[in-house]
Amino acid sequence: MNEHALNRPFIDAWVREKIFLGLPFREYARSLATPMNALAAVILLFGLPVTAYRFWKGLGAVTNLSQTNPWGIWVAFDILCGVALAAGGYTVASAVYIFGQKRYQPVLRPAILTGFLGYVFVLVGLMVDLGQPWRLPYQFFLTPGTTAVMYEVGWCVFLYLMVLALEFSPAALEWLGFAKLRRFVGGLTVGIIVLGVTLSTLHQSSLGAFFLMTPGKLHPLWYSPFLPIFFFVSSITAGIGMVIFESTLSHRAFHDRLDPAAPVDMNKITLGLARGGAVVLFAYFFVRLQGLAGSGRWDLLTTGWGAWYLLELLGFILLPSLLFAAAARSSNVKLARAAGVVTVLGVVLNRLNVSLIAFNWNVPDRYVPSASEVLISLTIVTLGVLVFRWIVNRMPVLTEHPDWRGAH
Amino acid sequence: MDGHELLSPHATKAIEYLIAITYLVLFIPFWRFVNEAAPARAFNFSWFHAPEDVYLHPGHAWARTHGGAVAVGLDDFAHKLIGPLEAFQPPELGAPVRQGQKAFTVLAGGKSLDVLSPVDGNVVAVNEAARVHPGETVRDPYGAGWMVKVEPRWLTANLKNLFSGEAARRFLESAAEKLAAKMTPELGLVLQDGGAPVHGIARELDPEHWDDLVRKSLRGE
User: Fold this and answer.
1) Which positions in chain B touch A261 (Cβ < 8 Å)?
2) Distance to chain A for B72, nearest Cα, Å
């Protein structure tokens, strides 16, 4: 606290500078009147009351969940896909700090922010699904079930969320101007990154380990003892795809936030990521084949489920791998971006297949999400995008803070 | 556990080994394919060329980011249009340049011609080799033939105003077409199939007012 702390003009100036992007309030409010914001407002206008209603009246009132199908799209999409798509943070962090690929530094902060917000909103989705959020810490303190996969997942999410917050904190501290604390956190960087990569590895794979318990429920083409490995390897592909997709998008959408003094060659970074994506997807394709060989159910490939399985395998794993390879070879950035999108869709498709579509495939009572469930999912995604934008518009995420150039 | 018993462990193992070996064998050509970059692509027109990694200004100056600086030179089209350069008058080191305004001057056929800067910034280096032997720049206009290096000020914004990739190809094509329209068969210059045109094409086209033609081109008109 300094002597100006309670000085009214000082606070006004601070709020205007930090919160209203240096604009007078009226102008700032006017700048918010855009079609995208209008769309977001409509979604929230309907979504937030429905979310509140879910907490008030319980799952039965808004969802199509049942005793047979207790996990719906909040688990399949908001949690499983959310975690996979948040993998860009640890993928890029390990590339930069563990494998020494410093040229990916410019996409590290956006990737970590995406990871951090991804996990925050995974937690929001989890709370919507579980209800009674105040009971969330029970599993750590009151009723630890040390033999449950869920116990490990809970700890991983809890710890990794803290790690991500620390990983992202330099940007927030630079924005607030807390130099001392910023230096202190900077000193922890490598340790935090290593912890984050370790926790992610554990956590991504343990989400796959959930489904080891459901051999009779998950279709044999998707069920495999290697599910944890599938989830882990595919999370790397999701991370790469998301970083390409999201950094291209945000470098375009937030063009004016880019630092003209330190131009970043996004094309080179994208092509480097494409090279990595090609190789990891290629390996993932063969690992998935091993899963199929292990089950020995080649006969199922000729069924309808087999066609759906082959679509995932060939169309969303092998195809993007070849697209990435072609893009890297011919330095075709547009093709690399397209391959990134296909990869991300592929991981989403895989998570939906494992947890929803091919899950309970042999049960007559198939689950289809209700409109309210979709709306709540949409609300969570919208909130995530709004928060992402709010932060990127203010904190040094796409740009380096002038005082902290080249710092960890 | 319906569907998960392994009926024959031997057959299953054999398939698993096959998949693993297939992966390893295919991975070698795949790795090579991904990592050996294809030869750098370039646009090839009948009588001039442009690599794909440069940004082009409508005034036929090119820019290429190079570390923190931007190398600037005259594109092959302009070189062929002007003919051998007799002198290159660079700006002073540190001098500010602005996108679309004069960056440096070249002399050819006794006429002095201004070349516009593709970016905003300050001149941080001048190609001495180009100054001493200006006539040589045409040999490698996008490499050793660079003219000045500029520390950019608003690079991201500047690059938006330049042609790259497909847009660069279209820009050069239309420039070539415009020029072709000026040519008549009597001049004996046929671009498409008549082989390489004369180096110094503008002088051949209009010996009296060739410099006006060049200046128009260099102004991006």
Assistant:
1) 153
2) 16
pTM: 0.69
Is the pLDDT at B194 greater than 50, yes or no? no
Q: What is the CATH number of domain B46-218?
A: 2.40.50.100
Q: What is the pLDDT of residues B95-110, one digit of tens each?
A: 999 998 989 999 888 8
B32 touches chain A (CB under 8 A): no
Give tens-digit pLDDT for A54-64: 999 999 889 99
Residue A379 has pLDDT above 80, yes or no: yes
Locate the chain A residue with the closest alpha carbon to B70: A263
Q: Taking CB atoms and an 8 Å cutoff, what residues of chain A touch B52?
A: 331
A-interface mutation test, from B156, B160, B164, most A Cβ less than 10 A away: B156
Q: Note whether B23 contacts A: Cβ–Cβ < 8 A.
A: yes
| Least confident residue range of A110-114, A376-380, B62-66 | B62-66
Instruction: Please state the three-class secondary structure of chain B as a single string.
Output: CCCCCCCCHHHHHHHHHHHHHHHHHHHHHHHHHHHCCCCCCEEECCCCEEECCCEECCCCEEEEEECCEEEEEECHHHHHHHCCCCEEECCCCCCEECECCEEEEEEECCEEEEEEECCCEEEEEECHHHHHCHHHHHHCCCCCCCCEEEEECCHHHHHHCCECHHHHHHHHHHHHHHHHHHCCHHHCCCCCCCCCCCCCHHHHHCCCCHHHHHHHHHCCC
Full set of structural domains in chain A with CATH: 34-255+262-362+371-400 (1.20.1630.10)
Extents of the domains making up chain B: 7-36, 46-218
